[in-house]
Amino acid sequence: MQQVKNSNFPGWWLCLSGLTIAVFSIYIPYFLNSGIRIDTEKADPDLSFQRKAESLQTGKAIFQTNCAICHGQLGEGGIGPNLTDKFWLHGNRPKDLLKIIQEGIPERGMAGWENILPPQNIKKVRDFVLTIKGSNPPNAKASQGREYED
Ligand code: HEC
Q: Where are the domains of the chain?
């Protein structure tokens, strides 16, 4: 009885093993997660390309349904600016576009979409907008904003 009760492990050892378990229980799921993500991308690039193409198709449909009324069917512009040229009023980085689409610019006539479209659809329509850059559609609206090289 006595022996079972009194552990022979020194306090520092218990401390260290507790710490190790704590660190690994955080690290292992993190490691597995990142591993899985990298693996699927690497294992089948066609698959991720397909997925991308599919989501661009969805992005296009979302654009035509919700955005074309102001930005034109091909993004050539109308009430809203031309989205196919190198000129941007609010920046050309993917995260700039995401913010504009989420929050809009209500005082300038564009409502935000974050309460209307699910987040993944906002990303899809943003990705679609990024692909029409340089497409040079007919009847393009005159450029607005600042020119961005890239
Ligand atoms: C009711 C009209 C309207 C609708 C619908 C609309 N927009 Fe806009 N959008 C505008 C206007 C107007 C601006 C310019 C705001 C300004 O002058 O600052 C704008 C600006 C933008 C910009 C920034 C352009 C730049 O030059 O920086 C992006 C990107 C954009 N819209 C994407 C979208 C997307 C994607 C949708 C659909 C989910 C959408 N818009 C729907 C009117 C609209």
A: 2-43, 45-147
